[in-house]
Write a structure and sequence with these properties.
The complex is a heterodimer of chains A (208) and B (176).
Chain A: H1 3-24, E1 39-42, E2 47-49, E3 58-63, H2 69-73, H3 75-85, E4 92-96, H4 108-117, E5 123-126, H5 131-136, E6 140-141, E7 143-150, E8 153-160, H6 176-185, E9 199-201
Chain B: H1 10-31, E1 36-38, H2 40-47, E2 54-60, H3 65-80, E3 86-92, H4 99-109, E4 115-119, H5 128-131, E5 138-139, E6 141-146, E7 151-155, H6 161-171
Parallel strand pairs in B: 1-4, 2-3, 3-4
Antiparallel strand pairs in B: 2-6, 6-7
The chains are: A alpha+beta (208), B alpha/beta (176).
């Protein structure tokens, strides 16, 4: 008589297992992990890797793109971040991971145009295979990973948003990335090392 | 003899006025709905509702292409779920300043029938985890929640109508 209940129990256990397995598959870096280097093509045609930048203390790696309204709202703020922190050892490394078939305006040629129109002072790299975005666990644009050099290691020190008001730069209360880099520059642990924000989902290749 | 309004029995006058206004509102409801700009507690009414209703809460924006593409699936689900304890709630992530300029025209142009409101909470880090801790903030994203049956399911990617129906039947099996 009790059989159906057992069946139901087994069924719900499997449902729960299925849900958690799905979440674990997302992967990507957590704060404190070591990030691996990459070699990606910049809008000027040169290949860029993090190790090549010997003078840097770390990097403000930002997954962004040409098309997402939120990413566009942050272009000027990224320029300001780079101007403020590149000289102090933390340059902005912008990476576009969007698939060109799904989002044609995120092509390499369009990246070159955008970088030149906006006079990006930072490198703007094309993650054509989307491998870097996948390895890092980026899900949206813009999505920031602050890396800190520690010997040969690149330590993930912060993951998240640039600040707390994408729509209106005037109304920003908390500048998460600035606060994190300031912490790192003064040799402290990052106080708020993880934040979230609404962004455009990365346009993954259809077959992946 | 001239007829005047005063000569028509008052009861009939009231009744026809009532019928006429019902007709008007009913018609207006089928056409378009008002879209309110709300704060977090309004969304939490759905997140924390203890009624035996499965809320399908979709986070979208007029500027989000994959969101716009999947909206008809949610509209179809809402239509199919008539009379069932399933409610689709479309939460716009557009900026409050774009409510009248973008969201209202969009909702009326597409004649959206599901519940729609705009969540005006710029400090997103403060509430994304309230919706679901596994949400990174990318949209489209959808939460299925039925607190009455202690069931919830969150997904951070576009959904087809077949998937929507499958989630409802497999993860919320007690729904009729």
């Amino acid at each position: 008589m009790k059989k159906p209940y057992y069946l139901l129990l087994i069924l719900s256990v499997f449902t729960l297992l299925g849900t958690s397995a799905y979440k674990a598959a997302d992967g990507g870096y957590q704060v404190g992990d070591s990030a691996s280097d990459f070699k990606l093509k910049n809008v000027n045609g040169q290949m860029v890797s993090l190790r090549d930048q010997k003078e840097a203390k770390g990097f403000i790696v930002t997954f962004t793109c040409n098309t997402c309204p939120y990413a566009k709202l942050y272009e000027d703020r990224l320029i300001q971040l780079h101007k403020k922190y590149a000289a102090k050892g933390y340059p902005v490394i912008a990476i576009n991971p969007n698939d060109v078939k799904v989002s044609p305006d995120d092509s390499y040629a369009q990246m070159q145009k955008r970088a030149s129109d906006k006079k990006f002072p930072f490198v703007y790299l094309y993650d054509e295979t989307q491998e870097v975005a996948k390895r890092y666990g980026a899900t949206r644009t813009p999505h920031v990973y602050i890396l800190t050099k520690s010997g040969q290691d690149l330590k993930v020190s912060y993951i998240g948003a640039i600040d707390d008001n994408s729509g209106d730069p005037e109304k920003v209360q908390k500048r998460y990335v600035e606060a994190a880099v300031d912490n790192l520059l003064s040799g402290k642990a990052v106080t708020q090392n993880s934040t979230k924000a609404i962004g455009c989902t990365i346009k993954w290749r259809n077959n992946s | 003899m001239k007829y005047t309004v005063s000569m028509i029995p008052r009861r009939i006058l009231c009744l026809s006025a009532l019928l006429f206004s019902l007709l008007l509102t009913g018609n207006a409801m089928a056409q378009t709905q008002k879209v309110a700009s709300v704060k977090l507690p309004h969304l939490q009414k759905y997140l924390n509702s203890t009624s035996d209703t499965t809320y399908v809460i979709n986070f979208w924006a007029t500027w989000c292409k994959p969101c716009i593409e999947e909206l008809p699936n949610f509209e179809a689900l809402q239509k199919q779920s008539a009379g069932k304890p399933i409610q689709v709630v479309l939460v716009s992530m557009d900026f409050a300043k774009d409510l009248e300029k973008k969201v209202v025209p969009f909702v009326s142009r597409h004649k959206l029938q599901s519940t729609v409101f705009l969540l005006d909470e710029p400090d997103q880090n403060a509430w994304i985890d309230v919706v679901d801790p596994s949400w990174s903030g990318a949209i489209p994203a959808t939460l299925f929640v039925n607190n009455g049956r202690k069931q919830r399911f969150f997904i951070e990617k576009p959904i087809t109508l077949a998937q929507l129906q499958e989630y409802i039947t497999s993860k919320f099996p007690n729904n009729p």
